[in-house]
Amino acid sequence: RVFNADGSIADMCGNGVRCFVRWAVHCMGMDGSGTITIGTDAGDQHCRLLRQADGEQWVEVNLGQPSFQGEASIQIGDRVFTGTRLFLGNPHFVMQGDPQNDDVDEVGPILSKHATFPNGTNVEWLDVRSETLGHVTVCERGVGPTQACGTGGGGAFALGVHQGFFQPNVETTIRQPGGPLTYRTNEDLSSVWMTGPATFVCEGTFRMNDLAPISDD
User: Fold this and answer.
1) Can you give the pTM of this predicted structure?
2) In which band, very low, low, confident or very high, does the pLDDT at 27 lie, cut at 50, 70 and 90?
3) Which of 55, 82, 111, 183 is deepest in the core (most CB within 10 A)?
4) Which residues contact 16 (CB under 8 A, 6 or more apart)?
5) Is there a contact between 108 and 114 (Cβ–Cβ < 8 Å)?
6) What is the pLDDT of residues 55-99, one digit of tens each?
């Protein structure tokens, strides 16, 4: 289970699952030679640990099948934001093009909590650069503007395939502020695979009485 910055619970976290697989194999001793299934609130995620030539560990996650839920247009002030609603691990609202000025910081949180989305939504801006490259900026539900969102990149990629900008069976790079992830899917969009690195940083132990409660402020 994944807790957001505001204490709410995400359906799942693509980047979090990658890190969890890396931890399970290297810290808990799980066998990383086959498929590892991780249960989440969005269902089972089927993963593989990949060993790259340079020794870096990469993890592939099958995010499942995207569910497209139609377009929506939302007016904020004197501007209208039009995008596509879809579900892939989490709810997403994907718009075409780069965000303007401070849209991610100021408009993103408003869209994320808009009444159009009863359970809230991740908000993505997708800028298609080529058939194999897209740039995605994310305002994440329960978090705000974020460096990277695995399911957000996957949702934007799936929409790009659905609309003909990207191609199935072709590995596509989705760049986010925190770095690139690669995605691929099949002809019928029944599965979206995400691949990215998972790097060990540090380990530590926390005692419960050392953790201060989250303030309402």
Assistant:
1) 0.91
2) confident
3) 183
4) 2, 10, 150
5) no
6) 678 999 999 999 999 999 999 999 999 999 999 999 999 999 999
Which residue type, as a one-letter code, is found at position 148?
A: A
First to last CA, the chain: 25
Amino acid letter, residue 92:
H
For residues 42 and 208, which has the higher predicted lDDT (pLDDT)?
Answer: 42
Catalytic residues: 13, 149
What are the tokens at 141? 């539900």
Instruction: Please enumerate in sequence order all residues whose Cβ is within 8 A of that of 110, keeping only pairs 6 or more positions apart, or say none.
Output: 76
Distance CA 75, CA 30 (A): 49
Q: Which residues contact 50 (CB under 8 A, 6 or more apart)?
A: 57, 58, 59, 60, 195
CA angle, 180 then 87 then 66, to 5°? 75
The per-residue pLDDT for range 127-138, each reduced to its tens digit, is 999 999 999 999
Pair of tokens at residue 92 = 């997403």
CA distance 52 to 44: 25
